Amino acid sequence: MKPAQNSEQKARRGRFVVLEGLDGAGTTTQARLLQRWWKSHLGPLFSTAEPSKGPIGTFLRAAMGHRIVQPDGARLDPKAIAALFSADRADHLATEIEPALASGVDVLCDRYVGSSLAYQGLECEFDWVKALNAPYPEADITLYLRVSPDVAAERRAVRKNAAELYEIDQFQRRVAEAYDRILQPGERVFVIDGERSVREIQRRCREILLERLQGR
Ligand code: TYD
Questions:
Q1: Residue pLDDT, tens place only, 53-82
Q2: Among the atoms of ligand 1, which is closest to the Cα of residue 112?
């Protein structure tokens, strides 16, 4: 048996922070802007996203982009997609997130369990999706960038890339309602007005992170 480490030797566990929001809410932009700032104010950071860059995440991105379909051209079954998002999460946690946290590195993840509950929870039985995701650790902080479905749709329209599987206005309206039900403000969940300017949203994210993480 290895000798027990004393408290000085034991690395502090990293903090796990997640960004959530509709397609077009700006999570990717805010994650990018947080990266350099994080390293100088809060310490080492591993910034990542789901679907992950691993094998299952790569498959899912292809499915989101309609590049992987059934032989007859139909989309994949919603339950299969929900199971794949869960499988990608298990893989992402085991190969990247948990090792980073264990070595004391903070992790910022663009989308996590909240996305599965909000999106797949609408297409499949909600409690089943919840059960599929029950094994995964809760994020220490979730920043929910809340935008109206109309604002999100306007932002998606200017991107000009082809609409992905869930980027249908009517579906996004339902996702917006689902997010509001699932991500209620609390100890670990912060709802941020995602319709403000990029700078203002960034300022608010930083404020929350400093208050909750600095010196801890
Ligand atoms: P997104 O972050 O929007 O990727 P990109 O930057 O390539 O547009 O995620 C792609 C899609 O995946 C998005 O529509 C939300 C969806 N998604 C789920 O439906 N469930 C999940 O668990 C995750 C992680 C993502």
A1: 999 999 999 999 999 999 999 999 999 999
A2: 24
| Adjacent-strand bridge partners of 19 | 110, 143
Residue 152 near residue 172, CB atoms below 8 Å: yes
**Model pTM above 0.90:** yes
Q: Scanning the structure block, which residue is given the tokens 């997640």?
A: 18
Mean pLDDT of 167-174: 98
Q: What three-state secondary structure class fits 19?
A: strand
Look over the chain and give the mean of its residue pLDDT values, rounded to a whole number.
95
DSSP string for 47-102: EEESS-SSHHHHHHHHHHTTSS--TTSPPPPHHHHHHHHHHHHHHHIIIIIHHHHH
How far away, in angstroms, is 87 Cα from ligand 1 center?
14
Q: How far is the CA of 22 from the centre of ligand 1 (A)?
A: 9
